[in-house]
Amino acid sequence: MKKKLVFRSWSYFRVGYAQYFAFILAMLNMLTTTYYLAIKDDPTINAIFPNFSIYVIVSSVIGVPLLVIVGYLHMKKSPAYSADQDILWESFPYSYKLPPGIQKECIAPLYLELLRLGRKSLSDEKLTSEELKQLQIFENKLDLIAKGGSIPTPKKFDEIK
């Protein structure tokens, strides 16, 4: 449990740092550096951007839509994003086994039971009282899920081995 906590904390740290902290610092660094090293001392460009605030506003008005378009093209038109997703899917532990929760507790057992009952029906066998009880349990679980509930207690991924 402690080992998972360390790795989960490391993962949260990386996301927080990369998505928020480093992004904001990098943006401020880029704006400050380009203005004070390239624009402020050049009289031609300084006439367009007489102070840092105007430079930040103009850069934001042009840069934000441009970067939204670049992000869209990366995700929708570039093979790079699909390659990233392929790698993520390959490393996802539940690619080839049932994830905990609804799939494992309800859907897969129901499919298995339906397969057994279908086979029994084809060979003209009668259902036992135990099989009827099991079907009722599945029906109750699916009804609960369909109404927005959760199966008794949702399990966390870190509790499952």
Overview of the molecule:
The longest helix is centred in the first third of the chain and has 38 residues, at about 1-40. The termini are close together. Helix 1 (about 1-40) crosses helix 3 (about 50-75). Helix content is about 75%, strand content about 0%. It has three domains: about 1-50; about 55-90, no CATH class; about 100-160, no CATH class. With about 160 residues, the chain is an all-alpha fold. The chain contains six helices and no strands. The mean pLDDT is about 85. The radius of gyration is 28 Å and the shape is elongated.
N/C terminus separation: 11 Å
Structural class: mainly alpha
* Gross geometry: elongated
Rounded average pLDDT: 85
Q: Bin the strand percentage.
A: under 5%
Tell me how many strands there are. Answer: 0
Number of individual domains: 3
Major sheet: none
Catalogue the unreliable spans: none
Give helix and strand order, one letter per element, not per position: HHHHHH
Number of helices: 6
Indicate the radius of gyration in whole angstroms: 28 Å
The helix content is over 70%
